[in-house]
Amino acid sequence: MVVTESSPQAGSNQSFLEEVSARTAGVSRLEMCIQCGTCGGSCPSADAMDHTPRMLFAMIRAGMEEQALRSNTPWMCVSCYHCVVRCPQGVHIADVMYALKCMAEQSHSYRDKTPPHFAGVFVSQVERYGRSWEMGLTARHYMRHFVTRLPRMAPMGLKMFRRGRIALLPHRIKGTDQLHAILDTAKELERAR
Asked: Cα separation of 147 and 145, whole Å?
């Protein structure tokens, strides 16, 4: 099928690109992607992604909304910003990935509930304690999704505990009231978009 300017699909393609760009914090520069592949080559999580970032961006441009939102690629992004630093066009790739995660969550478009659950547990801990609590994160997430893996992880967890690398109880940061004020403002801004 040939897509022309007058076909309905051409309009929907552009509107999905525009929607993703609008939902991205700041200026996404997504339309500037030249499909060079630097992002995928820079990504430490690329092997776990079902599509490279550039493939995902091509899908967005093609109006493949359902496929893009069902991709695991945004969920595998660890927000290291290595791709952003190396992108010759200055595309804000990690921010686009975050926007896609939010869109997938709102539309329940993800294939696997594991990554959104992990993200939810992580965010709830940061909101409550001001930082991640590894023991609690592991317990909540693995007890729900990977209970059979816990016995294999126990020796490593015990070594980390003995060396002071993880704690049994969460550590709350100082100034959580300031953190909550920042998070509340961010949520208000998100709702206003």
From this structure: 6
Q: How many domains does the chain have?
A: 2
Extract the tokens encoding 173. Answer: 């940061």
Nearest to 73 by CA among 33, 111, 35: 111
Mark whether 179 and 139 lie in a shared domain: yes
CA 84-89-90 angle, to 5 degrees, is 40
- For residue 17, being part of any structural domain is answered with yes
pLDDT digits (tens, 9 = 90+) for 76-125: 999 999 999 999 999 999 999 999 999 999 998 888 888 888 888 988 99
Q: Give the number of other CB atoms < 10 A from CB of residue 95.
A: 20
Given 82, 107, 132, the domain boundary residue is 107
For residue 149, what are the domain limits? 114-192
Which tokens in the block code for residue 4? 């022309």
**C-alpha 139 chain-centroid distance:** 21
